[in-house]
Amino acid sequence: MKPPRLTEADVQWSAVRAQGAGGQNVNKVSNAAQLRFDIRASALPEAIKQRLLAWPDARISAEGVIVIKAQDQRSLVQNRRAALARLQALVDAAAVVPRRRVATQPTLASKRRRLQAKRERAELKAARSRVDA
């Protein structure tokens, strides 16, 4: 399934103050971009929505809202692009349908190898014990 391309119209933006180093500039300019994306209200296919909601990611709230904060760049425009790229990567990962695991039986040769290794290990441990006179 090919994931749909997300645009800036699909998300809610807010400019917030960045954390960390940056001198006085970091205290007076809101250059960090915070993106909010409501999974349930989006136009994504239902299968992708379900996989995203089940995703074990701290950025996805219990209400089904993805919150991504980008603050690596000094420019708000670049941070918005970075946040949108992270969201797109998350949606792309959820669009990949996981392969179903097919249960298999161990081969007869692998069973024999395992039992032989167990026998050898047991003999080695038995040889360490006290010898009765």
Tell me what you see in this structure.
With 133 residues, the protein is an alpha+beta fold. The protein has a domain at 8-95: Double Stranded RNA Binding Domain. The protein is built from four helices and three strands, in the order E-H-E-H-E-H-H. It has a three-stranded antiparallel β-sheet with strand order 1-2-3. The protein is elongated, with a radius of gyration of 27 Å. The termini are far apart. The mean pLDDT is 87.
State the gist of this model.
The chain is of the alpha+beta class and 133 residues long. Helix content is 39%, strand content 14%. It has helices spanning 25-28, 46-53, 76-95, 108-127; strands at residues 12-16, 32-38, 65-70.
